[in-house]
Structure to design on (696 residues):
DNA sequence: AAAAGCATAGACAGCGTTGTCATAACAAGC
DNA sequence: GCTTGTTATGACAACGCTGTCTATGCTTTT
């Protein structure tokens, strides 16, 4: 079916322009512009006339024209490569909430793999006319990307980066300390054989969490059995696979610490497949406090990571840099050990 | 810290323009424009010169200028009010994938509540300069919204709408038939006391699923006990609450059918709290095949709803309407009953 | 060899806005 | 009443691009 002569109304054409409002209100376009940009020196009476005319014509400023003349796009890109929908939505919501009253809009850039984005981000940003980038893990950890953007003086902010703190703005938590706390919790419960399920080796957050795990073991003078180190990809499925391998081993660990909740949930599923009681026979701990940690049974002991808040603050940092050229250094937000039902004293 | 005199590079100013490319390539701006818009009548040699110059200057067409002169924004809005992150991400990914090679960009509009958006969508669309809207459930079911947009001839497409098929384009599945199939499955397993956990009463998908449930019972001449109807809000937490009420009742049902997976997972958690074996003592069924249905133990029997594909097709329909004024009527995609481990024969 | 046709290229206006600069209105100070 | 200063308003160019129209070559046809 085809529309005949009637035009569609999504287009910009046909909409009232600043000239129409000026004409109807008996003022000039410049005055209308002043009103819509809250510039001073407009008499209240004039302002009202303009506003009335605008309302009558259903006038909305044309963003394209505004962007063109100002040389700004008011577009910010959120780049992420993350297998966990919960995490992604938290990120988006945080950024959107911060952007809500600003004139900026958020563009999504889901990336297949962080590796093949290396060195391409600046080009993409330029092509889309972005004014700033938010790099979610692990994109903020790519050295080439950070170097490229810094070199070009292109505004960006990294969320939860783990590479050595450069001068670039970032918002995150202390992954090492958090992993250390979780490990201490397991040690305090009497666990000695603790398996660690790594996340994607390309995500440096994984390296940090593993480091924290090792530090805590070292504190208590426990020699870690490398056989208890297994690797996943941060996805639920990879957690299931890791869990199956771990529980099939001759000497089973009494606790498993997974580098994120999705994998911990996978490990939990593998435990159930094998008929293991959690936390009776094996304790399982995660990391992130994502929705999935509350959905499974028993609910997972985890690290509460303020993803939403990190994204919100990161967006604020980026905005400050774009709008006022303020350069905020690295920000660390607080994390919290959340003890729930999946961990219990070791009995062996 | 403040940047001194060096300018930030996110802005559009300072970037190469079409005039620069024309000058460097020894052509006119119109020819450069032709090259970048794949217009005919440009000699290969000229094209190459232009492209080389563009590459050398790192030229990218200014979207704002392009939008302005064309009277188009190339912006599409995705409106959703959905408590399930998995669903939302599927929706986004479907839309983004379809948009990938088009010049359009997607803007996100998470809505607090569909009700208070009623009658405001057109204004928001106009204010943001959108060319089209994708309405995810339940926004596509608001009569006032649909009426307003249709009236204004504003391009939009609804995902999984359930209201009486108007002439407006929509992509969805047959919720009634799907719920009927699931109910038959439970009946075939010998269940007779089946509780139904409703979703948000404001989401008409809920009404449809309940209707399908009732139809299947009627087919088998089973009088449904209204006490077995409980209500949630499509969230995991509301499912937990409903499950607790259901299992606290004097005569427990042998099966529970929840209107979505999140609630079914909640019911499952409530069952575990009470020490009930699933599916031994009670079968639980969900709807959606969202990630959560695979994460819990036992994995949930559910209806596989192609959310990603629905969003992708809906975007295609919208694009066709915007670009070529093609008007596609309602499209129904296939669903599938996915029998997993949470349902088993009734034994009583 | 002239005319006609087509492929190729450029000049220029205009899209809807904001910035700059000029001007008008009005109050205050002498 | 005349200057001065401040407040309020408007004329006009410019932002970077595409659409329209016109001009220039180069073939082909007569």
């Amino acid at each position: 079916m085809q529309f005949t002569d009637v035009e569609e109304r999504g287009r910009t054409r046909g909409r009232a322009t600043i000239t129409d409002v000026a004409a109807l209100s008996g003022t000039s376009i410049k005055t209308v512009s002043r009103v819509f940009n809250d510039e001073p020196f407009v008499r209240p009476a004039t302002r009202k006339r303009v506003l009335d005319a605008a309302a009558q014509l259903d006038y909305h400023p044309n963003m394209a024209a505004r962007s063109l003349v100002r040389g700004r796009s008011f577009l910010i890109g959120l780049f992420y490569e993350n297998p966990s929908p919960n995490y992604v939505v938290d990120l988006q919501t945080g950024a959107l909430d911060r952007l809500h009253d600003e004139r900026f809009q958020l563009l999504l850039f889901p990336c297949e793999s962080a590796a093949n984005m290396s060195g391409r981000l600046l080009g993409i940003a330029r092509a889309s006319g972005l004014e700033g980038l938010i790099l979610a893990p692990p994109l903020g950890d790519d050295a080439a990307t950070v170097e490229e953007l810094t070199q070009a003086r292109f505004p960006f902010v990294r969320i939860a980066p783990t590479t050595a703190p450069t001068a670039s703005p970032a918002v995150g938590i202390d992954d090492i300390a958090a992993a250390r706390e979780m490990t201490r919790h397991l040690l305090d419960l009497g666990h000695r054989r603790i398996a660690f399920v790594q996340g994607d080796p390309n995500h440096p957050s994984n390296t940090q969490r593993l480091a924290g795990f090792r530090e805590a073991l070292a504190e208590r003078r426990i020699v870690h059995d490398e056989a208890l180190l297994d690797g996943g990809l941060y996805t639920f499925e990879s957690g299931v696979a890791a869990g199956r391998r771990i529980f099939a081993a001759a000497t089973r660990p009494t606790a498993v610490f997974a580098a994120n909740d999705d994998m911990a949930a996978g490990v939990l599923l593998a435990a159930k497949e094998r008929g293991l009681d959690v936390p009776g026979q094996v304790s399982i701990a995660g990391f992130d406090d994502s929705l999935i940690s509350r959905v499974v049974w028993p609910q997972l002991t985890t690290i509460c990571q303020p993803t939403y808040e990190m994204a919100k603050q990161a967006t604020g940092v980026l905005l400050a840099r774009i709008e006022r050229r303020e350069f905020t250094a690295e920000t660390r937000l607080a994390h919290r050990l959340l003890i729930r039902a999946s961990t219990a004293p070791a009995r062996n």
User: Anything to note?
Assistant: Residues 27-31, 34, 40-43, 46, 65, 67-71 of chain B lie near DNA strand C (CB under 10 Å from a C1'). Chain B touches chain A through 65 residues (CB under 8 Å).
